[in-house]
Amino acid sequence: MTPDLTxxxxxxxxxxxxxxxxxxxxxxxxxxxVAGGERHxxxxxxxxxxxxxxxAGLPEEYGGAGGGAVDLCLFLEETAKAxxxxxxxxxxxxxxxxxxxxxxxxxxxxxxxxxxxxxxxxISMSEPGAGSDVAxxxxxxxxxxxxxxxxxxxxxxxxxxxxADHILLVARTSGSGHDGLTMFTVPTGTAGLxxxxxxxMGGKEVNxxxxxxxxxxxxxxxxxxxxGWRQLMAGLNFERLVLAALMLGTAERAFDDAVAxxxxxxxxxRPIGTFQALRHRIxxxxxxxxxxxxxxxxxxxxxxxxPGELFPREASMAKLKATEFAKTMALEGMQMMGGYxxxxxxxxxxxxxASVISTVxxxxxxxxxxxxxKTYGL
Length: 378
Hints:
Blueprint: H1 7-24, H2 27-33, H3 42-50, H4 69-81, H5 89-102, H6 105-117, E1 121-124, E2 140-143, E3 149-155, E4 166-172, E5 181-187, E6 193-198, E7 206-216, E8 221-222, H7 228-264, E9 266-267, E10 270-271, H8 276-305, H9 312-337, H10 339-342, H11 348-356, H12 365-374
Parallel strand pairs: 1-4
Antiparallel strand pairs: 2-3, 3-7, 4-5, 5-8, 6-7, 9-10
């Protein structure tokens, strides 16, 4: 159930779902598309780009379809539900929002047009000593007399930097705390930038970045020098909606797989899904899943109907609820499937690995609760 979808939006969601079934609908297809722990298939991604899917939520002037947040959420939901290996898309579309709001015309053409054509983009905020407390970051960019910048420092947990064309870097240019932060565009082949992958239970997705006298031109600044914090805040709520839609689709896949399993798995002479203990759990999970979907798309509709508004409460609620439920759903699915839920033969263990980290990235669940409580004056 989704509120107020147009016929065009329903057709778009159906087309994306059918594409995913055709191109990556089986475990064998998905395994052939990615290898060695990677979560992104460039081949599949380029096919989606050719069909115009990657630009669903981007402006027409840069090659996109001119759709809004609802269209974007539909794409994220369907691809996540299909387990399509396009792990680079979420960071790319989050980065796109920052350039759309603050980038120069040249930057918009390069970044937004590139995403439409199949480029992956990344964003780097976190550091070893600055995670939820972004204001504590110390990676520094110093301006030289000719206007160029020299970056030194370390970043960490940078998603998709190893497959990205550019990194949207947040560095300190002056002051302390929230003041004096600036955004920069850094091509991943820039001299002085080293990218090292971090092994995780989810596969190859995050990286350490090391900047050693990395020189950037004056034109690398995104937006205003020293205004990075405000620019970040303008985009974090959009980021949270993106992640909520992604985990909505992930939860839907876990639910569908669990239901399919309990229908066919027989014990004590009948399908285990006919036992009341499991039937009631399925009923509760289905109810929760419906609530999550309504919350995500209600937030997306608010964003589309009110351009420029931030909706911190709704975005944080959607991110909190969708990610926590995705994790719960995966754990419940694994429990219902018993040993098979733990085995790599089935997808549930992969879904669990993907969902566990979702309550951390993009602002932890604790941070989301803090934001929500503040909107009530607490």
